[in-house]
Amino acid sequence: MRLTNLIFFLLGQLLLVIIATFLLGTLLGGFYHSALIIISAYLILMLIYVFSLKESLQHGFKIKWLGTRGFLSEVNSSIEALSKSRWRYRKRFAQLIKEVNALASAIPDAGIIIDEFNNIEWCNRSSLTLLGVDQDRDIGQKVGNIIRFPAFNHYLKNHKMDNFIDIEDSNNKRFLRFRIVEYHDHSSRTKKFISVRDVTAQSKLNQIRKDFIANASHELKTPLTTIKGYSEIINEDSKEQELANFANQITLQADRMNKIIEDLLSLSKIENSDMELNDDLIDVGSIINQVLESYESLNKKINFKLSIECDKKLISDESLFYSIVENLISNAHRYTDEGGDVLISWSADAEYATFTVQDTGIGIPQESIERITERFYRVDKGRNAKTGGTGLGLSIVKHALDRMGAELIIESELQVGSSFSCRFPNKRLAKD
Fold it and tell me: How far is the C-alpha of 84 from the C-alpha of 127, rounded, in Å?
C-alpha cells in the first residue's frame, strides 16, 4: 500500500465526517450534537472493522462487506494474504515437526536429551530398545537412575575428557558406544545430547583382529629368537667374510621383524578399549629431552632444535605420550638427510596445547597424506626398507591421540619437509 493512498483515505474520511456533520446539523438544528453523533458512529464502525481484522487474523474470517475497492479493501486484502501465508507456514512447520519426529524414531541409534541437572527431557524410540529408556515413563527422571552402567556414570561426569566410550552390556551380550555432546538451547541453558550406537559387530571384528595380531606376534617371537641366536653364533664363529655378512644380514632382518612385532603389540594394546588410561602429570619438555638423548650417539647427525613455550604440564597417560614423542622424532630423523633440521615445539593458545615435530626431510605427496597413518602404508617402499621403518609408527601415534582425545594434523611438501602437530584440548593442561 502506498503512502499517498493512506493520505487520500484519511482526507476522504475527514471530508465525509464534515459533510455528514453539516447535513445532520442542518436537520437537527445543532452542529455540536450532530458532530458527536457522527464521530461516535464513525468510531463504532472502525471498532467493528478492527474486530473483523482480529477475527480474520485469528480464524481466517473474511470481511466481505468492504467490497473490492478503496483503501480499507486494500488493507483487508493484505491482511488476508498475510493470514493465508501464516497458516501455510504453520502447516509446513507442523509437517516438518512430524518429519523430524518420524526421522528420530526411525534412526537405529538411541538419542536422549538431558538438562543441566541430568534429567531426561526427550528420547527417541530406539532408546527403549537399546537402553530401556521409555519416553512415556522416564521423562523427568535422572538419566543415571535409568542407565545403570558404572562406566557411563563416570563418563557422564568426565565426558569432556573423551570423545566417546564403549561399554559392554553383558546382560544382552552386546557393546554400546556412548557419545555426549553439549549444546545451548534458545534460552542459553546448557543441555546434553546422548547418542548410543550398537557396535557389537564392529567390536567382535576388532577383537578377532586384535587376537590374531597378538597371537601371531607371540608365535613369531619364538622362531625369530632362534634365528637370531643361530645367526649370531655363525657370525662369531665364522672365519669366512661372506658367510659372516650373510649372518649379519639375518640378524638385521630378525631385529627388524622383532621391531614390527613389538609395534603390532603396542598398537593392539592402544586399540584395546579395556585399557585404562592414566591421568599423569606429564612434563612435556622432560619427555622430549629423554627421547633426544638416544639420538646423540647415532652416526647420522641431525640438527635438533627445541622450543618449549608452554610451561604447563599435560594431563594424560605418560606411556602413550612417550610413544607419540618417540615415534614422531624417530620418523623425522629417519626421513631427514644428514645435516637437516628437526624443530620440536610445545606451545599453547586459547583453545589447544600443541606438540609439533617439523622436519626438512623428503616430504610426503599430497595424495598420500590422508593414508600415511594406515598400517604398513609406504610412500616409498624402497627407502622405507633401507631406513628400517616398520610402517606402524604413525599409526601408533594416530591411535594413541584418539585415545587421549587429541588430533593429529599433518602438513607436508615434497623436498621441503613435513610437520606433524598433536593438538590437545586446553582442558588437558594442568592448572597453575
Answer: 39
Q: Are 424 and 404 in contact (CB under 8 A)?
A: yes
Cβ proximity of 334 and 259 under 8 Å: no
68, 61 in Cβ contact below 8 A? no
Q: Which residues pair with 304 in a beta bridge?
A: 342
Q: 3-class SS at 113?
A: strand
Residue ranges with strand state E in 12-170: 110-114, 120-123, 165-169
Cell of 174: 552386546
Do 204 and 188 reside in the same domain of the chain? no
380: left (phi over 0), alpha (psi -120 to 50) or beta: beta
The DSSP element (H or E) to which 306 belongs, if any, is strand 303-308
**DSSP letter, residue 190:** E
DSSP H helices, 107-168, are 125-131, 135-138, 143-146, 150-158
Residue with cell 594434523: 409
Q: Please give the residue range of the domain that contains residue 182.
A: 107-198
**Residues 284 and 424 grouped into a single domain:** yes
The domain that contains 255 carries what CATH number?
1.10.287.130
116 phi and psi angles, rounded to 5 deg: -70, -15
Query: What distance in Å separates the CA atoms of residue 80 and residue 86, rounded to the nearest whole number?
Result: 10
Beta bridge partners of 316: 280
Backbone angles phi, psi at 312, to 5 degrees: -80, 150
Phi, psi of 278 (to 5 degrees): -90, 150
Using a cut of 0.70, tell me whether the model's pTM lies above it: no
Q: How many domains does the chain have?
A: 4
- 159, three cell numbers: 565426558
The answer to whether residues 334 and 418 belong to one domain is yes
Q: What is the CATH number of the domain that holds 334?
A: 3.30.565.10
User: Based on the domain organization, do 382 and 285 belong to the same domain?
Assistant: yes
* Pair 312, 426: CB distance under 8 Å: no
Backbone angles phi, psi at 360, to 5 degrees: -110, 40
Per DSSP bridges, beta strands 341-348 and 303-308 are parallel
Residues 59 and 194 placed together within one structural domain of the fold: no
Q: Are residues 118 and 51 in the same domain?
A: no
Q: Specify whether 409 is located in the same domain as 289.
A: yes
Chunked into runs of 10 residues, the chain (432 residues) has average pLDDT values of 58 68 66 70 72 63 51 63 73 79 78 91 88 89 90 83 80 90 83 91 78 71 74 69 72 76 77 74 92 80 90 90 93 89 92 93 88 78 56 87 90 92 90 72
Question: Do residue 348 and residue 414 come from a single domain?
Answer: yes
Distance CA 315, CA 424 (A): 10
